[in-house]
Amino acid sequence: MNNGEYLRYVALGDSQTEGLGDGDDTVGLRGWADRLAEHLAAVNPSLKYANLAVRGRVAGQVRAEQLGTALALRPDLATVVAGVNDLLRPRFNAAEVAGHLEEVFTALTDTGTHVVTLTFPDVGKIAPLARPVRSRVFDLNARIRAAAARHGVTVAETAGHAVTTDPRLWSADRLHASPLGHERIAAAVAHAIHLPGSDDTWTLPLPPQTAPAGWQAAAAELRWAAAFLGPWLARRLRGQSSGDGRTAKRPELLPLSTTPDSDSSATVWRSTS
């Protein structure tokens, strides 16, 4: 689409694309995809936007549950971001996860859709207790880049910039971006697709802050494990997901100023753009 004038934007993915960490289930979720839609609408006010992402979904579920709907919406721009929920599971298979993503890339690009995806930052720098899965992140990123190259998919390289592991870009659970983090992700994607008005300022570091003392950092890790890691592991053992019973917050292509009807299983962000 010339000059970034996209008409139909569809977002596929999991909780990050749904917008967790940016708003809540009471006031509604915003998130980087909503923020990107705002950037797109600033270029083309006729933009229509759908967000099919649902928290807790693994890559295979994104392919199985969201791809068909996305194809039916006939987007000219689609973002596909998934895989983090996979790499946190014991039986992670990078080739299998990348294979699901590549199927989504293939199906969408075959219809002429401009597809954009992301690479993931070093989780070991965000949550030290997550260091054992660092190699999984690096492996998945490499496979995402390779699959994207085979299909002409644009990659927003958020993995290669130190600012993406700054704690201020992450919410308290360290799994979801903070409002500032979602803002930076949206800016990264806008820059990757050369949207008018975008630039690389999203890569700039935040002002320095005093690092916590060793005992403070250790105490913070223990609090995080008790508040977030423990409950997450408990859900896994029970075979539960945070997305059980939930549906997409914005399943139809609508102008950005239009709020979808809300129900008990979906939350919405009421945009005033």
**Average pLDDT over all residues:** 86
Biggest beta sheet summary: 6 strands, mixed
Summarize the amount of helix as a percent range: 40-55%
Can you tell me the residue ranges where pLDDT is under 50 for at least 5 consecutive residues?
262-273
Give a count of the beta strands, DSSP E runs of length 2 or more.
Answer: 8
Element order, helices and strands? EHEEHEHEHHEHHEHHE
Number of helices: 9
Which strand order do you get reading across the main beta sheet? 7-6-5-1-4-8
N/C terminus separation: 22 Å
Alpha carbon gyration radius: 18 Å
Helix/strand/pairing class, anyone?
alpha/beta
Instruction: Tell me the β content.
Output: 5-15%
What form results from the Cα inertia axes?
globular
Outline the secondary-structure elements:
Elements: E1 8-13, H1 15-18, E2 23-24, E3 28-29, H2 31-43, E4 48-51, H3 59-73, E5 77-81, H4 84-87, H5 94-109, E6 114-118, H6 123-126, H7 134-151, E7 154-156, H8 179-192, H9 214-238, E8 250-255
Parallel strand pairs: 1-4, 1-5, 5-6, 6-7
Antiparallel strand pairs: 2-3, 4-8
Helix pairs in contact: 2-8, 3-5, 5-7
Please give a structural write-up.
- It is a single chain.
- By secondary structure, the protein is an alpha/beta fold.
- The chain is 41% helix and 12% strand.
- It has helices spanning 15-18, 31-43, 59-73, 84-87, 94-109, 123-126, 134-151, 179-192, 214-238; strands at residues 8-13, 23-24, 28-29, 48-51, 77-81, 114-118, 154-156, 250-255.
- The strands form two sheets. The protein has a six-stranded mixed sheet with strand order 7-6-5-1-4-8, sandwiched between helices. It has a two-stranded antiparallel sheet with strand order 2-3.
- Strand 2 and strand 3 (28-29) form a beta hairpin.
- The chain starts with 7 loop residues before the first strand and ends in an 18-residue tail after the last strand.
- Mean pLDDT is 86; it is low at 262-273.
